[in-house]
Design goal:
The protein is built from 13 helices and 33 strands. By secondary structure, the protein is of the alpha+beta class. It has three domains: about 170 residues, C8orf32 fold, CATH 3.10.620; about 200 residues, no CATH class; about 160 residues, no CATH class. Strands 25, 26, 27, 28, 29, 30, 31, 32 and 33 form a nine-stranded antiparallel β-sheet that branches. Strands 8, 9, 10, 13, 14, 17 and 18 form a seven-stranded antiparallel β-sheet that branches.
């Protein structure tokens, strides 16, 4: 027997109490509150962690079948009421659709399997796609085999249909299998990283066609080996180059394309049209060459620009164009929207005031065949590189400790929360292209200007020393750790060669986009962090993590330092 402590959010339960009845797929696709998610993962993940796929699915099915008392909605509420997943833990009774909704959520959250709903006349069940062949009742949907899983048929094993519904016509309820999609994206990006490719931003940088082939875009440093295909930048220096690569559904390389110039170029978003043509976008400095110089894009006025390039699904290059942002001042807080036709005609750019809560940047294709390239000068990787120089005393090299102290004092005078000001000082200095910072230098600064820190926050102090190097490489910061070992800051884990990007907003707040290597969690349960937003006045840090973009707010002083 197992004992689980599953939490729920009472405010959310109260909100759902008067929620109007909607289509059942809304309930199937719903998320749960952060406290419910964390308690489910912490309670059930350790139990199923070492089970086979079939064993884990069977355990979750039995858990839902036997852990909740059954009663129809008519008896409990005198009306039909569908539950969101979280409500099953609150109310004393549940029926078939409620249990199916909860089971589907558990499978998606804990196992990353694809799930569909099955609506019989008067009954709802589910079916699960396994990664291995399995016995029992099944159906084929969209060319894939799904095994029946009935969360109301108590003690029925995986693959058994309730007898009164066997052979009955049923309706398929298609679900948003976001966890499976996220897991699939991660699978292919793991292949790309091992080949030498990296994310250019936290935008949509992978798409799939109807056959399950994957197309990914990003950047590589100097050279990358995608399967048997080696790609190099045209520069003699190790600058960033753009890649576009295609894999079949099993992870086998089909083709790889690249573009580069004499300075860095970075791709960070991709879309696919109905004809399987591919459009990628990114930024570049100086010039960018495609297909060995057959098409060359050139920047003006020593500025940077963004580009769109079109390929077909066999990797044939069709065209590449730049947006023309190199003719505008780039040290600003504006958002830009540039329109292109699918034939590569630039229809112009519109500028808007930046809204720091807006995050739908990237490349989009509308039904009329118009491409929308949306970004901001402060957020776009490689666009607004700091051309300033850190002030140093005449005839002397940069003194990092003095620079950090001066920046910290300035920020505190500007009403930054005193504990978070030091972190902002480091972030502000790290915006300077090419700057290198070692963890021991930060420790030396603390020893000199805040000597009590070492004793008061000894764990954090020691962890800082485990960071060997922070280096800004054209807007992307690489983090190297001591001896290549992971470093834990409270419930955040940093692995060696992690990549991040810093965005500063006009308000003074900042955002760290995690491109790879930094996770949140504890023990063996870790979620990829998408970004961390830092608020200057409170010292709060909003952490956005996992494929469902769960969010949690922590305070630097209260939750990390102390």
């Amino acid at each position: 027997p197992y004992s689980l402590n599953i939490k729920y959010n009472q405010n959310l339960i109260n909100f759902y109490r008067d929620y109007p009845q909607v289509n059942i797929n809304i309930y199937f696709d719903a998320a749960v509150s952060l406290e419910t998610k964390e308690s489910i993962v912490e309670g059930l993940k350790p139990i199923i962690n070492n089970m086979t796929e079939t064993e884990a699915l069977s355990f979750l099915l039995y858990f839902v079948q036997t852990s909740f008392d059954y009663q129809t909605d008519e008896k409990q509420f005198n009306k039909e009421k569908f539950f969101f997943p979280e409500e099953v833990f609150y109310y004393p009774y549940s029926d078939c659709e409620d249990r199916s909704v909860l089971f589907a959520y558990l499978v998606k959250e804990l196992l990353n399997n694809k799930v569909i709903g099955i609506e019989y006349p008067g009954h709802i069940a589910t079916a699960v796609k396994l990664n291995q062949d399995s016995e029992g009742d099944y159906l084929v949907y969209d060319g894939e085999k799904y095994i029946i899983a009935d969360a109301t048929f108590e003690n029925a094993p995986l693959g058994m249909t309730m007898p009164e519904y066997r052979g009955k016509e049923a309706k398929i309820i298609e679900l948003d299998n976001y966890k499976y999609k996220g897991h699939n994206n991660k699978y292919f990006w793991d292949i790309v990283r091992k080949s030498g490719g990296y994310h250019g931003n936290n935008l949509q940088d992978v798409v799939f066609d109807d056959e399950g082939n994957a197309y990914l875009t990003g950047y590589f440093m100097g050279e990358a080996e995608f399967g048997d295909q080696t790609k190099k930048t045209d520069s003699t220096q190790a600058v960033r180059g753009v890649f576009l690569v295609k894999y079949d559904k099993n992870g086998n390389i089909l083709w790889a394309k690249n573009a580069s110039g004499n300075k860095s170029a970075t791709a960070y978003a991709i879309v696919r049209d109905n004809n399987n043509n591919l459009y990628i976008t990114g930024s570049f400095s100086s010039k960018l060459e495609f297909e060995k110089g057959s098409t060359v894009l050139q920047c003006k006025n020593d500025n940077n620009d963004v580009f769109i390039a079109k390929y077909n699904n066999e990797g044939k290059f069709i065209w590449a164009k730049k947006a023309g942002l190199d003719t505008f001042p780039q040290d600003n807080y504006l958002t830009y929207l540039t329109n292109f036709t699918t034939d590569g005609i630039n229809k112009g750019t519109t500028f808007y005031s930046e809204n720091e809560s807006y995050n739908n940047y990237g490349l989009y294709l509308n039904p009329d065949g118009l491409l929308y390239l949306i970004g901001s000068f402060s957020n776009t990787t490689g666009l607004n590189l700091s051309k300033l120089r850190l002030e140093t005393r005449e005839g002397k090299e940069l003194n990092l400790s003095e620079s950090l102290k001066a920046e910290n004092d300035k920020l505190i005078a500007d009403d930054y929360e005193v504990n978070i000001a030091g972190l902002f000082s480091l972030l502000n200095l790290m915006k300077y292209n090419g700057l290198k910072v070692e963890g021991k230098e930060v420790q030396s600064t603390l020893n000199m200007y805040n000597p009590e820190f070492r004793e008061k926050y000894s764990d954090v102090y020691q962890d800082i020393g485990k960071i060997n190097l922070l280096i800004n490489e054209d807007g992307i910061i690489s983090i190297k750790t001591k001896e290549g070992k992971s470093v834990n800051f409270d419930k955040m884990k940093v692995t060696s060669n992690s990549k991040v990007k810093i965005t500063s907003f006009e308000s003074g707040d900042a955002q760290i986009d995690i491109l790879s290597g930094i996770t949140a969690g504890k023990f063996f349960i870790w979620f990829d962090i998408n970004f961390v937003k830092i608020f200057k006045e409170t010292g709060d840090m909003l952490i956005d993590f996992d494929t469902d973009h769960s969010q949690k707010v922590i305070n630097l002083k209260e939750d990390i330092l102390e």
